[in-house]
Design goal:
The chain is α+β, with helices and mostly antiparallel strands and about 140 residues long. The protein folds into two domains: about 90 residues, q2cbj1_9rhob like domain (Jelly Rolls, Sandwich); about 50 residues, no CATH class. Strands 4-1-6 form a three-stranded antiparallel sheet, with no helix packed on it. Strands 3-2-5 form a three-stranded antiparallel sheet, with no helix packed on it.
């Protein structure tokens, strides 16, 4: 994302829902509190200076501004650290990646509602654009 994006209102928020306890030993997520207000791209040295490790019990959640700098940590245990990540964005914001990957059969059989929820057609349109095809050119080729 380019620097200078609006912080208020937030264009995105993220929730990290802990399905397992997050501890220092099993790699709780690192976050830099207040970093959503920093100008510029993430910088490892600055991040390391301010970062704290999120810890909590199963069922706890970290709710953050979408521009908050964060990263995963090494899991030193022999058990997985499971979490669900949920991103909420304003309708005008499109993610850089889509959910998936999905196999062709799943995509072909997806309902219109599911296609919209997973932004499947947005990904298709972005791929067409990246290949230099416009909507008009694609319609003529059909």
């Amino acid at each position: 994302m380019n620097p200078g994006l609006p912080v208020d209102p937030a264009l995105m928020m993220q929730v990290i829902w802990m399905m397992e306890p997050f501890t220092e030993h099993n790699g709780g997520t690192w976050v830099a509190p207040g970093s959503q207000l920093w100008d510029g791209r993430p910088d490892e040295e600055r991040f390391n200076k301010h970062a704290i490790q999120a810890t909590g019990n199963a069922g706890d959640a970290v709710v953050s501004h979408g521009l908050l700098w964060h990263r995963t940590a090494v899991n030193h245990s022999d058990h997985p650290r499971v979490a669900i990540l949920i991103n909420y964005t304003q309708i005008a914001v499109r993610p850089m990646t889509t959910m998936g990957p999905f196999d062709d059969t799943f995509v072909e059989n997806a309902s219109d509602e599911l296609r919209a929820l997973l932004a499947l057609d947005v990904e298709k349109a972005l791929r067409r654009r990246a290949l230099g095809h416009t909507r008009h050119e694609t319609a003529e080729a059909s």
